[in-house]
Design a protein that fits this description.
Elements lengths: L1 H17 L3 H9 L4 H34 L9 H9 L3 H29 L2 H9 L1
Helix pairs in contact: 1-3, 2-3, 3-5, 4-5
Length: 130
């Protein structure tokens, strides 16, 4: 499942850093920052919303994949869904589905809080203004 998490994290990190304004990079270099300093102090903070979005997407993909992993007998919350379906115990199936949805929503909320806590207010405002 970790392999499923890698593409959205890499793509969003790459795109976030690539979309940093060239003027910001030039200004940072103009005040004497080295390449690594520009990356750590300018590019990563500006790209952080997209990086967190990649992490959030990866986490939700892992939650959903873990749910359907029960289909091949690997357990998890999906076990309740598939066992309930096989035994025609629809309340068990619905309970498992509700738990899987709640886990996905809690994951989403956790990453929203993470973004609010770690992304600078100016960067957040700039990202929503686009």
């Amino acid at each position: 499942m970790v392999a499923l998490a890698i593409p959205p994290i890499l793509v969003n990190t790459y795109e976030g850093i690539r979309q940093v304004d060239a003027e910001l990079r030039d200004a940072a270099q103009g005040v004497g920052m080295t390449g690594p300093e520009v990356l750590l102090h300018v590019e990563l903070p500006v790209a952080l919303p997209l990086i967190i979005l990649g992490l959030r997407t990866a986490a939700i993909q892992i939650v959903s994949t873990a749910t359907i992993a029960a289909y091949v007998g690997l357990g998890g919350l999906g076990r309740y869904i598939f066992d309930g379906l096989a035994r025609r115990e629809y309340e068990v199936m619905v309970g498992g589905a509700v738990l899987a949805v709640l886990l996905a929503l809690l994951t989403e909320a956790a990453f929203a809080l993470l973004a609010k806590a770690t992304v600078a207010q100016g960067v957040r405002h700039r990202a929503t203004a686009r």
